[in-house]
Amino acid sequence: MGKKILRFGVIGLGLMGREFGSASARWCHLLNLDFIPKITAICDTNEKLFDWFTSNFDSITVKTSDYHDLLNSDEVDAIYCAVPHNLHAQVYTDIIKAGKHLLGEKPFGIDLAANEHILEVIRQHPNVMVACSSEFPFFPAAQRILRYIDEDRFGTIIEASSGLLHSSDLDPNKKINWKRMIAMNGEYGSMGDLGMHALHIPLRVGWMPQQVHAQLSNIITQRPDASGAMVPCETWDNATICCDVQTGNQQFPMYIQTYRVSPGDTNTWYMRILGTKFSVEYTTKYPKTLRTMQYIASGEQAWQVLDLGYETPYPTITGGIFEFGCSDGLLQMWAAFCDQLANGRDKMLQPFYCATPDETHLHHRVLTAALQSGKTKQVVTV
Ligand SMILES: NC(=O)c1ccc[n+]([C@@H]2O[C@H](COP(=O)([O-])OP(=O)(O)OC[C@H]3O[C@@H](n4cnc5c(N)ncnc54)[C@H](O)[C@@H]3O)[C@@H](O)[C@H]2O)c1
């Protein structure tokens, strides 16, 4: 039997729009799937970006600078939307109202109010499938960590930490772009940009913070614009959010870091959970290395190092001993979105589904409380 074709429109053909293009172009990497995405329509207000798509995808029949053309097209079943944060609420709700399924980018609304508006429109359109992009939980190490949490291995959890660290903003000569402007990126700054990456796994496993205390820093306060003139750079560069988590009979501190100025870190996602019986630590800086420590009372305390291979939720052609990277995470996430679209969440070929709109709402509540805490220097109840 032929594969089910899922016809996609892409709105926003920048960094992430092209990543989706590339993932769909190497669908043959994935094994045993009975569905396949096909890009039929593209949209960006910058028409210079059309060429890369049209020269690589002969399936495109609609190219436009007005996204409504995709919403009105019979050639489009679902849309991937990767546009600046100030446009999320308007564009996402228009997509959903048009009856097109949506994989939207984080933070899923520039602020809590925008997120709640998107969620309200989702509730009014229950037949439209909507999810949020977040690829790191699809990494082999992240899947292991999820399994360890599910198996309740940790004993009493001592603390958890998770973060996403970038370094390019350390360079004061880096030109300002929309991600450094409150009007387009949002008042959250780096928390809105990177928070979903750090919070997705904690929220999926029910580690919703009850209270937060956040330390926010604006380190580089001016940047050159396109003409070279120095302009204010107003967004928070770095955030450390100290969270109080209560889950079941456990209560522990959780530290969330979203850093745009983290010397030497390119796109470093990490997670560490320390427990009285078991601990685990992973960072994408050492992409294969998973560190774990099992502890038995009065026994030795010795960390173990495991070289992880290409253990993926969806099987692929890649040798099991090869390394896994960010574009592989995106491919796996895309497989999960298409799987859910083709088969429904209860009948997916593997159980880990993409971030849900409700999870984006929880993450907005955490970020909004963190923003208030950072400004007032108070502990804030989420
Ligand atoms: N999942 C991830 O790892 C990841 C990584 C980076 C960015 N993102 C998210 O993806 C989204 C986009 O970020 P990016 O890095 O791709 O940005 P980008 O600036 O590279 O691309 C955004 C594109 O949107 C286009 N655009 C702006 N207004 C538009 C409109 N009205 N109609 C159509 N197109 C329009 C711009 O011309 C640009 O090409 C953001 O929400 C961001 O947070 C996610």
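^ nicotinamide-adenine-dinucleotide complex. The chain is about 30% helix and 25% strand. The CA atoms of residues 23 and 331 lie 5 Å apart.
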